[in-house]
Amino acid sequence: MSAATSDLTFTRLGPHMAIAVDGVDLRDTPNDTLSQRLRRALLDHQVLCIRDQHIGPGEFLAAISLFGTPQIRPEIPHVAGFPGVTTISSDDRDTQGDGKRLVVGALWHTDDSHMAAPSALTALYGIEVPAIGGDTEFANMYAAYEALPPAERARLDGLRAVHMTKPNRTVGRTRSIAPDILATRPPVVHPLVRTHPETGRKALYLGRNRMDHIVGMDREAGHRLIDDLVAHSTQPQFVYRHKWRRGDIVIWDNRCLMHKANGDYPEGARRLMHRIIVAGTVPY
Predict the structure, then answer these.
(1) Number of domains within the chain
(2) Which residue out of 45, 111, 194, 213 is catalytically annotated?
(3) In a domain? residue 284
(4) Between the CA of residue 141 and those of 56, 176, 232, 235, what are the distances in Å?
(5) 4 falls within a domain
(6) Among this protein's residues, is 111 annotated catalytic?
(7) Residue 283 is assigned to a structural domain of this protein
(8) Rounded mean pLDDT of 234-260?
(9) Residue 5 binned pLDDT confidence (cut-offs 50, 70, 90)
């Protein structure tokens, strides 16, 4: 079925976010009308799952490029010939560290918050998925912010946090990065609450794997606040858990979500994903 078709079926996946679309074949580049419908679905539901795809890295890159400019991350393994298409696999090992198995994205985080202009979107293509486990969870940071008392929202609106590739606190296992790449990534300061540049809605902006401290706050008190906000945001009423099907392409909005990968699939089970990160803007 052509990607230009209007015969689409949209199905809600969670009660407050996430939607799936059937009837799209990304082997054909979407036309303007379809691209607009898909982008609108993503903005309205924060997570968009395009079902039943059978595409190569070039077609994947062409389709996601309609949502924005793909970014290249030299420290992450990529598909040969396609540096903008990185890989996430059950075979991943921390090659710059101890060489042990690495579950990429196992902590609640927002992609690229350690960059001056963090990514807007991430697209993940499920090429091989385990029968059990390996789900991806998403936390709705719009809803988490809106659920806070007005006085707390007002207090948080004025706070900023320092984000770093390797923060000066222990937050769990992450990918080791070569010193020459680390040297090109100085700490950055982002608001604790950001306004989405397209929807105008406010959302908490968090990620324990990259947040070093809150500006102007005692370090320990800042860490407690960060941890409390992450715990608040990841309560069940704010979370959607995606059970992968082979051929799913899931696109999510880093400007209003956190997410995490679950490495709970059985030993020996195979998981292979292709990923594209879409450029964003400075979140002010």
Answers:
(1) 1
(2) 111
(3) no
(4) 32, 28, 10, 11
(5) no
(6) yes
(7) no
(8) 97
(9) very low
